[in-house]
């Protein structure tokens, strides 16, 4: 918090600061009743309404200047998605507030699960399930990662200065629905996870046993849209892997099918 350095709240002993965090605050999921009514499609379950920032804190985070936010967006994101002025790969922006998915979904969100919380699987968004809006009028509904279409992605950052994973747990869990298998990502301090917004995942609360106490496992999430810069552009990241800008993809679950000869059991995040 750039503007709250004098706050002496002890979140290790007392949990998240109630002046900024609230139970049930993490409800940033799109309203999809239009699909249930129009197409008999079941909307994804919500995330369980865990500990999230208050509306005032979210507004401050999204619309006021914060040095750390600006540094991440101008420096770190440019390294994650490398480009240059002469040959840009994408035009990247935050999810426009209210324009794509309605008022319930903000361009940035944060969570602070504590031991005892319960979360369900969910997706952040899906361009194939957008509600009626100017966005849908222009782009239509389409499968994420479609050629020449904006790609919906989330960028998750783990914020704790210290996190003893073996003792405290608290991973982000990704579910492969086709094989009913999951992959846990350890919340290492400062780790960045890039994922498509239509990937099924869940917060896992810290372990109730051990020394974690009421210590929250903090994370901040950017909701991003990657716009193509060329007609019919390939919106996958094959180039980044081929150029060794990104590490080799991790394959697991149904993504592993057809790759058994490589004997991998991981996922592409």
Write up this protein.
Helices cover 18% and strands 20% of the residues. The chain has 269 residues and is α+β, with helices and mostly antiparallel strands. The longest helix has 14 residues, at 67-80. Residues 38-47 and 260-269 have low confidence and may be disordered.
List the helices and strands and how they pair.
Layout: H1 11-14, E1 21-26, H2 33-39, E2 50-53, H3 55-63, H4 67-80, E3 91-94, E4 108-111, H5 134-139, E5 151-158, H6 165-168, E6 172-176, E7 181-185, E8 192-196, E9 201-203, E10 219-227, H7 238-242
Antiparallel strand pairs: 1-2, 3-10, 4-10, 5-8, 5-10, 6-7, 6-9
Q: Ranges with pLDDT <50 over ≥5 residues?
A: 38-47, 260-269
The ordered string of helix (H) and strand (E) elements is: HEHEHHEEHEHEEEEEH
Characterize the biggest β-sheet.
5 strands, antiparallel
Distance between the termini: 28 Å
Could you say which structural class the secondary elements and strand pairing correspond to?
A: alpha+beta
Number of strands: 10
Strand content: 15-25%
Radius of gyration: 19 Å
Helix content: 10-25%
Note the overall shape. globular
Tally of DSSP helical segments: 7
Mean pLDDT: 83
Summarize this structure briefly:
The chain has helices at 11-14, 33-39, 55-63, 67-80, 134-139, 165-168, 238-242, and strands at 21-26, 50-53, 91-94, 108-111, 151-158, 172-176, 181-185, 192-196, 201-203, 219-227. The protein is of the alpha+beta class. Strands 3, 4, 5, 8 and 10 form a 5-stranded antiparallel sheet that branches. It has a 3-stranded antiparallel sheet with strand order 7-6-9, with no helix packed on it.
